[in-house]
Amino acid sequence: MPDESHFATAPELVPVPDDYAPYSRTSLKQYQERYRRSIEEPDAFWTEELRRLDWIKTPTEISNVNWDPDNLSIEWFADGVLNVSYNCIDRHLDQRGNDVALIWEGDNPGLHSAITYRQLHNHVCRMANELKKIGVTKGDRVTLYMPMIPEALYAMLACTRIGAVHSVVFGGFSPDSLAGRIKDCESEFVITADQGVRGNKPIPLKENVDRAIEIAGGVKAVLCVRHTGADIGWVEGRDFWHHELTLQVDANCPPEPMNAEDPLFILYTSGSTGKPKGVLHTTGGYLLWAAMTFDTVFEVERGEVFWCTADIGWVTGHTYLTYGPLANGVTTLVFEGIPTYPKADRFWEVCDKHKVNVLYTAPTALRALMREGDALVEAHDLSSLRLLGSVGEPINPEAWAWYHRVVGKGKCPIVDTWWQTETGGCMITPLPGAHDLKPGAASKPMYGIEPALVDGEGHFIEGEGELTGNLVIKRSWPGQMRTVYGDHKRFAETYFSTYRGLYFTGDGARRDADHYWWITGRVDDVLNVSGHRLGTAEIESALVEHVDVAEAAVVGYPHDIKGQGVYCYVTLNAGVEPTAEMEAELKAHVRKEIGPVATPDVIQFAPALPKTRSGKIMRRILRKIAENQLDALGDTSTLAEPGVVDDLVANRPQG
Ligand code: WT7
């Protein structure tokens, strides 16, 4: 008898498990009816959905959208007035004031705490008053560069309380990257901590902030949380300790009434060209989308514990760690550490310790943990888990099967949620209990979402049976980004011009005969490395900044753990030797310029890069060489110097 555990791939269809029936809130029929209504009677649908939030003024206008790139404008609930922190905290106080809002689990397994909604109210009000005290006013951009500690969430919510716009920068980004983001949105305020800790290693957050401010300029005040107690530099008059200011401010701060279309936050993300762009989300539409999709996809009940393992530096950490759970008044778990510290069973230990009911994580983490063997999972009691989620990249069948069988014991559905920083929340996902699962498929559109496929010329690919093409969305939804901060033209060009009047996702997709959607990955020059989005252009520009580099081209290649690895072709200046030391130096250089997530996996020194006669680098060929698909290089006859390719193939680093 073959042992099930040795099956390398997942079955094609996994029916909704009977064990899930007690939790299921949406049947297939209900999903179909609600979806139909959301598309055919959107105004009626959204008028009902609005009741999920507490409005100071309930909107009467639903949407006002023009996707023509020349007149691009997107508004939802435009005459509505509300406050995000009120919706995430105050309105729960009567009924749920003593419920736990957030559980914090430290990097050090000995450290954890629980904060109730009442305590959260107190912390957020105080921090909001601290922000006022250091000069922050409505509409100001506040940059957050924080470890995963409760104060990070307090800071986000404190901004929303007073109508300031937060821009969270991942704590793993370099001072240069941080500086670029501070500058781009002209942020005069930064909230940080002395240090972060991950895997028992300190992260010099305040030191990085100091360097970033030197580079960017323009920062008036820094609010610093004391976390590790490390010695740090201090600029009198500019830097303020949170623990000192908090004693000087009132524990009550009235929530600022905000228009639904007032900016809520900026989050920088990489595109196929240029610098990272500031994705802008607004107040009403984003919060409703976060609240509705969280509730619909994860079905978390009062008393349950939801754990999203994403960092607040990414959109998942905004929508499903912070705003979605808190808007719904349930418990969110905030984890400071990494999956492998102190041992590679940390996720399972945390699930057991805090009796996690829903776990939402990324395929890259699963692939890394799968390697460590089943025993590490089996050593812990995971019986509290009822639902598992995946996000960030397509999940491969092996990882899906392992997640389902070893972590979920075959009784937990897996929701594979496809979405983007730009979309604010889940766009294509199965609903647990409603949809039979197809491992690897993002499955079915969320309410209000109308996906479609187009070919290279922008013609719709339609019909029954299996279809493949570029994924576009045909109509607006409340959680959609509203602009690229400070560059509305770039917003129009990036998303609405490739296929005029349609939102272009940058992803390729397949719709199978059962109308399940499968995401096949980016079709542009964006890499997905361990679920982190990186633009090849950013890495290239970091490389050519090095004095010895003449030219660079970066592509992705399949990587067992990371999904995609970073493969760099580098042409050195004449007279510079391509040594192992130079290779190490360039890797360290990119790491320093952008951050550890962007560290190149492979550097291939190339005397020249393959170019067309008009001088355009032929990335298609570079990708094939990186993927080791040497017999699929295709037509090289249009190259200026075909011999360049032979040289690259002959000198491809082994491994
Ligand atoms: C890109 C967006 C969504 C929050 C985390 C990433 C890829 C994301 C899936 C999925 C296949 C996925 C896409 C997308 N992606 N989720 N479930 N299946 N691909 O947000 O950094 O904005 O990246 O991640 O390629 O375009 P992001």
UniProtKB/TrEMBL annotation:
| Residues bearing PTM N6-acetyllysine | 616
How is the protein altered post-translationally, as described in the entry? Acetylated. Deacetylation by the SIR2-homolog deacetylase activates the enzyme.
Annotated residues for binding of Mg(2+): 544, 546, 549
Sites where the protein binds CoA? 198-201, 316, 530, 591
HAMAP family per record:
Ac_CoA_synth
> Family per UniProt?
Belongs to the ATP-dependent AMP-binding enzyme family.
Q: What is this protein called?
A: Acetyl-coenzyme A synthetase
- What is the documented function of this protein? Catalyzes the conversion of acetate into acetyl-CoA (AcCoA), an essential intermediate at the junction of anabolic and catabolic pathways. AcsA undergoes a two-step reaction. In the first half reaction, AcsA combines acetate with ATP to form acetyl-adenylate (AcAMP) intermediate. In the second half reaction, it can then transfer the acetyl group from AcAMP to the sulfhydryl group of CoA, forming the product AcCoA.
The UniProt record lists the AMP-binding enzyme C-terminal domain at 538-616
Q: Which cofactor does it need?
A: Mg(2+)
Acetyl-coenzyme A synthetase N-terminal domain: residues covered: 31-88
Q: What is the catalytic activity of this protein?
A: acetate + ATP + CoA = acetyl-CoA + AMP + diphosphate
Q: Where does ATP bind?
A: 392-394, 416-421, 507, 522, 533
Keyword line: Acetylation, ATP-binding, Ligase, Magnesium, Metal-binding, Nucleotide-binding
Keyword set includes Metal-binding: yes
